[in-house]
């Protein structure tokens, strides 16, 4: 719940109240919505400070009177001039924020006419005070024109509510900047986490690229080996052919060579077919590796762009956060 001390610097209010009371030669005090004082009394009269409020009955009546006057001033939305329980003239200037009474500046402790002896002696009896002393103190109270009190009440009302509205706006700015700062801190934390994750992805992508390059290099080496195998196969084929020719030339003595030559040709044929199949598979692997490499490079470029964008976003968030902190400092400055 909003309190008067939340939106107005009570030290500043005290000084203003003291200066106002002294310049206008009237008493003044500021109370919260319950009638409890939040400032020290300014220029209080003898009858109030030393007599009326010297008794518990007097203190209770004053508090009740303050609260009732504040409520009435709040109801009308303007300063309220009234006669207090002890017979003096007071006024209440309500401090209103967003349609809610949060306090009242009270002033007065004056009279419009000379005090009536019977009234003040009656009050003294109710408070348990010495009647003559109380009446003598009443005669010390200043008699002031009603218009002067009205003007003083209007001034207090205007100043107090200007201060309260300005203080309320500062309070709202402080609350908003606090919320903004918290939100930006969460965003900053999230972007930092994303940046770290993005960097990790980039590193993993680089590792993947390196592995893909290794696979491509191994494929190339396999092709080289297949070249050797092809040469060997051709040589084996030629050996089988030569063996067959030699077997045919020697006739029956070369039958054993014929069998060997056939097996050599079969071996050459199988090797050639195997080499062909391996070459086709290696070709497909190389094509797949090339496609993977292209996709990986594209992903790496995008990831690096994302990392840069995240870092830029994080820098912007930190800058806005610093602005918010400065705004909060300004809002809290007096």
Descriptive overview:
The protein has 334 residues and is α+β, with helices and mostly antiparallel strands. The protein folds into two domains: 141 residues, 2-Layer Sandwich (Beta-Lactamase); 155 residues, Orthogonal Bundle (Helix Hairpins). The protein is 75% helix and 9% strand. The protein has a four-stranded antiparallel sheet. The longest helix is centred in the middle third of the chain and has 105 residues. The model has no long low-confidence stretch (mean pLDDT 77).
Question: What order do the helices and strands come in, and which of them pair?
Answer:
Blueprint: H1 4-7, H2 10-24, E1 27-32, H3 46-51, H4 56-76, E2 80-83, E3 89-97, E4 100-110, H5 117-127, H6 131-139, H7 146-250, H8 255-332
Antiparallel strand pairs: 1-4, 2-3, 3-4
Helix pairs in contact: 5-6, 7-8
Pfam family, one: PocR
Domain Methyl-accepting transducer: 145-334
GO biological process, one term: signal transduction
Task: Describe what is shown at a glance.
This protein has helices at residues 4-7, 10-24, 46-51, 56-76, 117-127, 131-139, 146-250, 255-332, and strands spanning 27-32, 80-83, 89-97, 100-110. It is of the alpha+beta class and 334 residues long.
What are the secondary-structure elements, in order, as H or E?
HHEHHEEEHHHH
What would you give as the CATH superfamily of the largest domain? Methyl-accepting chemotaxis protein
Low-confidence stretches: none
Overall mean pLDDT score?
Answer: 77
Into which percent range does the helicity of residues fall? Answer: over 70%
- Strand pairing plus helix content: what structural class? alpha+beta
Domain Methyl-accepting transducer: 145-334
Organism: Clostridium beijerinckii
Pfam family, one: MCPsignal
Protein name: Chemotaxis protein
């Amino acid at each position: 719940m909003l309190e008067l001390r939340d939106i107005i610097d009570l030290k500043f209010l005290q000084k203003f109240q003291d200066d106002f009371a002294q310049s206008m030669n009237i008493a003044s005090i500021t109370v919260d919505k319950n009638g409890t004082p939040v400032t020290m009394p300014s220029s209080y009269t003898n009858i109030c400070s030393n007599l009326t409020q010297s008794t518990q009955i007097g203190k209770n009546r004053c508090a009740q009177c303050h609260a009732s006057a504040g409520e009435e001033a709040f109801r009308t939305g303007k300063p309220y001039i009234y006669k207090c329980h002890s017979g003096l003239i007071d006024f209440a200037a309500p401090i209103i924020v967003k349609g809610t009474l949060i306090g009242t500046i009270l002033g007065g402790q004056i009279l419009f006419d000379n005090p009536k002896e019977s009234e003040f002696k009656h009050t003294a009896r109710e408070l348990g005070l010495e009647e003559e002393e109380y009446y003598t103190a009443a005669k010390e109270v200043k008699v002031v024109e009603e218009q002067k009190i009205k003007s003083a009440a209007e001034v207090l009302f205007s100043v107090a509510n200007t201060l309260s509205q300005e203080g309320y706006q500062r309070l709202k700015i402080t609350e908003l900047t606090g919320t903004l700062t918290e939100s930006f801190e969460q965003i900053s934390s999230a972007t930092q986490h994303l940046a770290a994750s993005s960097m990790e992805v980039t590193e993993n992508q680089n590792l993947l690229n390196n592995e893909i390059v290794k696979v491509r290099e191994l494929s190339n080496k396999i092709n080289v080996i297949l070249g050797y195998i092809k040469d060997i196969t051709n040589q084996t084929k030629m050996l089988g052919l030569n063996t067959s020719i030699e077997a045919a030339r020697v006739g029956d003595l070369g039958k054993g060579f014929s069998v060997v030559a056939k097996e050599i040709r079969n071996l050459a044929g199988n090797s050639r077919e195997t080499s062909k199949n391996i070459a086709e598979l290696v070709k497909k692997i190389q094509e797949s590796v090339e496609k993977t490499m292209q996709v990986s490079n594209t992903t790496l470029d995008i990831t690096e762009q994302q990392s840069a964008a995240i870092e830029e976003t994080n820098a912007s968030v930190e800058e806005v956060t610093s602005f918010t902190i400065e705004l909060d400092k300004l809002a809290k400055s007096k």
